[in-house]
Specification:
The complex is a heterodimer of chains A (385) and B (511). Chain A has 12 helices and 8 strands. Chain A has 385 residues and is an alpha/beta fold. In chain A, helix 7 links the parallel strand 2 and strand 3. An 8-stranded mixed sheet of chain B has the order 3-2-4-1-5-6-7-8, sandwiched between helices. The radius of gyration of chain B is 26 Å and the shape is globular. Classes of the chains: A alpha/beta (385), B alpha/beta (511).
């Protein structure tokens, strides 16, 4: 914003405030007034900040898959391989998403599709947070298709719906985690997002996915703001024998990021995962800080992947989040968390459609290995099952 | 695409001027626009449908008044309806007649319950109560510690007999908390509970048990303003589980439009009582339905702005300045003082967000750097008192001196002085009431968002002297940088011509 614009804005504010405020003061004098804000910044992290004690979300007992792994050191857990996780989690997904698929199919199964029926389809999609734009597109396409082909068979209609949904989710996008670094340097994955979406948990789970893939990992606790966030990450790391680089609480997150990549290079690690503090995308100062974290890390090694963590309950604001984070750190993938509730996470369809950023992982539960690679077909099948 | 409902409606009504009444066809046209606007604000689908039906009914055949054009008329109806659903008036906390008042907090994980407990504690203390916070969130790691820290900052007693992290029985803690409050003569008890999913039967039962054990006077359902369509399902689950009596909306400092507020209110019938708008403990206030309506429709929030100003501004100073403005003797010194007062109100970004119609400048506002203010301050502070009093005397050599003194370019000083004169003229006009002929580009009445962007873009090549290192800011500068030499346009905003600026209604009423 230019200085000139700023002066204009300030004078507008001054005018509004002085004139309106002056008048309001006369009117409302004697009403309760709050005292000036004390210069404190409180801990406002509503989601879990794990202290030294083990995270209760993480099952202490080893996963079934590792039970017969006698050779593995006792203290280290062996995470389940990521392949096929979505299948295992599908039952859960189907439970939470059933209503969407069923509602759509019930409508499509009718003998005639009148305007009211189409409206119902539209409402069902909107109720899943798919968003007005994507819904309009899907409904329009489906409508044309069914009319042109003169479809009356509900089965064919269902297939057409499935095809449209799959197309919206776009299976052709590359959904693999780009964790391979160049020139012998490690791949760097930066995890970002607004407050309370589950970034630290995601980093911990990602570490397990990578360890299961026989990769060596270094964790960087660049969330120096939230109390005990580094402890929480360290707990995740210790379970799978992954070192965590951390800085002083309240320290510069960029320096922690820098040091963790430095450590990753020194150790010859394959991947460095950097956790960052949650920040609302409207706070320009914090967004600048995030930009700095990325720039400083890149002095060591290029960031190969920037994952934006979005809560499945998020509504249309998720699109703005994705856009603003994308502008600052060039988001390359999305992790959709908390999909095990009643939320349907349709916002990712809108985000993908608007910004072309693919969903790469979904978080579906409270367990340590409840992070699954996203698969468009399976996701849609689960929606419709 | 127009950013605001008002803009959309204005375009929908382009050919409607002169009609005495709104016809059914007209209303159908706008119903779609209202629907999209509400859905974009995350209002639940079922609520939208019901809402539209009501608006249609009211709008049909409504007399088109002299003072409002059809778009404004519909907006007014929508706004009134919104306010009505959102609760009409703000409800206060019901305090118990005898014994401590018990307030229980419940909500999803990550909604902000623990933070809210601290804010509520501070607020109650300011109301002359003696609150105590009870740490009954034994589920989430570190929640107890967090509550203790928050309580300490608010200067409120915290009762935390259990360390938490999965140890202890929350029902017992809540009961013990109540007994402790009786013993220590605290008159309000705030019980912080663990976050839970609506479909988690075990945890919902636990919440119900806590409710039964402490028999709260108020059960507050804490919900994130960013939540989407799921708000309805969640609210229903919590209504069934803990039968909450009021709702608190958190994270309103983001740019989510908070349609969830409308959904929750209209589905459960429970009033929204508080809104939490920031990271500081004082960023918390009673909920104002009228302001929320404006926000859902993206119409700005002048009243909040004024209220914040009341806190930061010295009343007498403000009155004096208003007088000066009227008389046209507003000096750079006054400007500096006002600017400082504004910075006291919080970040410029936040304040701008409250101005009506700023939706279209969202991108610029989001990426706005508060340090620009310091630059202006530096320039003014590098002037002599005489120069500040009468900026007209600033000539070439004075300019050079000022720019050297403030570490800026001569053109920055030029810009500031020129713009100050224009701004003063505008403020004077504004002070005298009526429209604002001098500033047609003011974003007061949206509807030009798109055109504004289009006009600005071709200019971006001229800029590029001060390119930000931050890619986001750079982008914002490219799209948002308004050309300084835009002829009659005094404010760096793109000329808009046919849209006369109108003060928001609230403001007009005040003046």
């Amino acid at each position: 914003m230019t200085t000139n614009e700023l002066i204009a804005l300030i004078s507008i504010i001054v005018a509004v405030v002085v004139l309106g405020g002056g008048a309001a003061l006369v009117i409302t004098r004697g009403r309760r007034q709050l005292p000036p804000a004390p210069p404190t910044r409180e801990i406002d992290q509503p989601d879990g900040a794990t202290p030294i004690s083990p995270d209760p979300e993480v099952p202490a007992e080893p996963e079934p898959a590792e039970a017969d792994h006698g050779t593995v050191v006792d203290t280290l857990e062996r995470p389940e391989a990521p392949q096929g996780r979505l299948v295992r989690l599908r039952a859960r997904l189907a439970k939470s998403q059933g209503s969407l698929g069923k509602g759509l199919l019930a409508v499509l199964g009718r003998s005639t599709l009148d305007d009211a029926a189409w409206e119902e389809i539209e409402d069902t999609l909107l109720a899943a947070d798919v968003g007005v734009g994507a819904t309009d597109e899907l409904v329009a396409n489906l409508r044309t298709k069914l009319r042109v082909e003169g479809v009356t068979d509900p089965e064919v209609a269902k297939a057409a719906l499935r095809a449209e949904l799959v197309r919206l989710v776009d299976p052709t996008l590359d959904r693999s985690l780009s964790s391979a670094g160049a020139d012998g340097r490690p791949g760097v994955v930066l995890v970002v997002g607004v407050n309370g979406t589950g970034k630290t948990t995601t980093v911990g789970r990602l570490a397990r996915v990578l360890v299961a893939d026989e990769k060596t990992v270094v964790l960087g606790a660049a969330d120096t703001f939230r109390a005990a966030a580094a402890d929480q990450l360290q707990t995740w790391g210790e379970r799978v024998g992954v070192p965590t680089v951390r800085g002083p609480e309240g320290g510069d997150p960029a320096s922690v990021g820098f040091e963790s990549v430095q450590r990753g290079i020194a150790d010859g690690a394959d991947v460095v995962l950097v956790d960052t503090a949650g920040r609302l995308h409207t706070k320009s100062g914090l967004m600048d800080e995030l930009g700095k974290v990325k720039r400083v890390i890149e002095k060591q090694a290029p960031v190969t992947e920037v994952l934006l963590v979005i809560d499945a309950t998020t509504g249309q604001n998720g699109l703005t989040q994705a856009r603003v984070f994308g502008e600052v750190v060039d988001v390359t993938g999305i992790v959709l968390t908390k999909l095990d509730g009643t939320a349907k996470g349709g916002i990712v369809i809108a985000v993908q459609r608007e910004l072309g950023v693919p969903v790469k992982f979904v978080g579906l539960g409270e367990g340590a290995d409840d992070l699954a690679p996203f698969d468009a077909d399976e996701f849609v099948d689960a929606l419709l099952s | 695409m127009f950013d605001t409902l008002q803009g959309r409606l204005q375009s929908a009504f382009k050919n409607l001027r002169g009609k005495g009444r709104l016809s059914e066809a007209d209303i159908d046209t706008v119903a779609r626009e209202i629907r999209v606007a509400l859905l974009d604000a995350d209002v639940a689908v079922s609520v939208v449908r019901e809402f539209i039906a009501r608006v249609k009914e009211r709008a049909l055949g409504a007399e088109v008044s002299q003072s409002l054009n059809p778009a404004q008329q519909v907006i007014k109806i929508v706004n009134d309806e919104l306010i009505e659903i959102l609760g009409g008036e703000t409800r206060r906390i019901r305090y118990a007649k005898n014994g401590p008042t018990v307030i229980m907090l419940a909500g999803l994980q990550g909604a902000g319950k623990t933070t809210l407990a601290g804010k509520l504690g501070l607020w109650l203390k300011e109301q002359g109560k003696s609150p105590m916070l009870v740490a009954a969130d034994l589920q989430r790691p570190n929640a107890v510690t967090q509550l203790q820290v928050v309580g300490e900052r608010a200067g409120v007693t915290v009762f935390a007999p259990e360390p938490g992290n999965g140890v202890g029985d929350p029902v017992q803690v809540a009961t013990a908390g109540l007994a402790e409050a009786r013993r220590t003569l605290h008159d309000v008890v705030v019980v912080d509970t663990a976050g839970r999913l609506g479909i988690d039967a075990d945890l919902m039962q636990q919440a119900a048990d806590i409710r039964a054990a402490v028999d709260p006077d108020e059960v507050l359902f804490v919900i994130d303003a960013m939540i989407g369509q799921d708000a309805v399902v969640t609210a229903e689950a919590f209504l069934e589980g803990v039968d909450f009596t009021g709702v608190v909306l958190t994270k309103l400092d983001g740019d989510a439009r908070g349609g969830a507020a409308l959904s929750v209110r209209s589905i459960t019938g429970r009033p929204i009582m508080f809104a939490s708008t920031g990271e500081k403990l004082t960023d918390f206030d009673a909920f104002h339905p009228d302001r929320m309506a404006g926000r859902i429709l993206d119409m700005g929030d002048v009243l909040t702005l004024i209220e914040q100003a009341e806190k930061a501004f010295d009343a007498e100073q403000a009155a004096k300045d208003a007088e000066k403005l009227m008389g046209g003797s507003f000096t750079l010194d006054d400007f500096l003082k006002q600017m400082e007062a504004i910075s006291k109100m919080g970040s410029m970004t936040k304040i701008m967000g409250l101005l009506p119609g700023m939706g279209q400048y969202k991108e610029q506002i989001e990426n706005f750097d508060d340090r620009e203010v310091d630059k202006i301050k530096a320039i003014i502070l590098s002037m002599t008192p005489a120069e500040r009093e009468n900026p007209k005397i600033i000539d070439g050599s004075r300019r050079a001196r000022i720019s050297k003194g403030s570490g800026t370019q001569v053109k920055d000083v030029n810009g500031l002085v020129d713009r100050f004169f224009d701004a003063r003229k505008m403020m004077q006009q504004m002070a005298k009431g009526g429209g604002m002929p001098g500033m047609p580009g003011m974003p007061g009445m949206p509807g030009a968002g798109k055109r504004a962007g289009a006009k600005q873009k071709p200019q971006q090549k001229k800029k590029g002297k001060r390119v930000s290192g931050n890619p986001a800011k750079r982008a914002a500068a490219a799209t948002g940088a308004a050309p300084a030499k835009d002829g009659a346009n005094a404010f760096g905003f793109p000329a808009q011509g046919d849209q006369p600026f109108e003060l928001p209604k609230e403001l007009k009423d005040l003046m």
